[in-house]
Amino acid sequence: MAPPVQAGNRDTPLPFGALRKAELLGSPQLIRWEWKPDGLVIKIPETRPSNDSLVIKLS
């Protein structure tokens, strides 16, 4: 897997409520994520639907 991308904060209010799922759009692979003291850590798979950009849907 690629290095984790970190952003956000567990206390940051989200428009949809509590985070339940993260999806890499265009990819059938499951995305692993977890809250750490520094914020949200999303693990991006090595195989990606595009080399140009990535879109992660948080719900």
Helices and strands in order:
Elements: E1 5-7, E2 22-24, E3 32-36, E4 39-43, E5 56-58
Antiparallel strand pairs: 1-4, 2-5, 3-4
Word description of this protein:
The chain is mainly beta. It has a domain at 5-45. It has strands spanning 5-7, 22-24, 32-36, 39-43, 56-58. The strands form two sheets. Strands 1-4-3 form a three-stranded antiparallel β-sheet, with no helix packed on it. Strands 2-5 form a two-stranded antiparallel sheet. β3 (32-36) and β4 (39-43) form a beta hairpin. The radius of gyration is 12 Å and the shape is globular.
The radius of gyration over CA amounts to 12 Å
Structural class estimated from helices and strands: mainly beta
Widest beta sheet: strand line-up: 1-4-3
The separation of the N and C termini measures 22 Å
Helix content: under 10%
Largest sheet: 3 strands, antiparallel
Give the low-pLDDT segments.
none
Indicate the mean pLDDT: 79
* Number of distinct beta strands: 5
Q: What is the count of DSSP helices, taking H or I runs of 4+ residues?
A: 0
SSE run: EEEEE
Strand content: 25-35%
The 3D shape can be described as: globular
Short description:
The protein is mainly beta and 59 residues long. Helix content is 0%, strand content 32%.
